[in-house]
Amino acid sequence: MIILGIIMLIIVLGAMCWLLFNLAVFALPLFAAVSVGLATTDTGAGPIGAIFLGLLAGIATLTAGQMVFTLVPSTLVRVAVAGLFAIPAAIAGYHATHGLAALAIPAEGWRQAFALFGAGAISLTALARLALPRGAGFRATPSDARLSGQ
């Protein structure tokens, strides 16, 4: 029974890490959605209006970030947009990794080291997910070969 518990714990921690990596790019849109939702609640719009406007703000933030990152040729603007998405992801990754490390690592120095490594890895994941469109892979397709003249 103890072995089953350990196996289940490893599976659950792995699933949490997988979710964290998959949702890292959405840290900034989530922050925008929650901020707009709370601000609309303070103005008296009610919960339905707050939820609607929060969802709208989150979707608009994600869409605008991806469009600016893919359509604007200026490197400086792309770096700024990438930083806007990567910094909240790094902060969320730091705190999530620190919380997971606190479950198994007694020394605070090692917890901080793992948390900093997790923050870097998750921010790089957010950058990669922002830079690569959905379904993009690293293999060449026949249309790529035609475009390059091969």
UniProtKB/TrEMBL annotation:
It comes from the Bacteria. The chain crosses the membrane at residues 7-32, 44-64, 76-94, 114-132. One of its GO terms (molecular function) is transmembrane transporter activity. InterPro entries: MFS_dom. Keywords: Membrane, Transmembrane, Transmembrane helix. Residues 1-150 form the Major facilitator superfamily (MFS) profile domain. PROSITE patterns: MFS. This is Major facilitator superfamily (MFS) profile domain-containing protein. It comes from Rhodopseudomonas palustris (strain ATCC BAA-98 / CGA009).
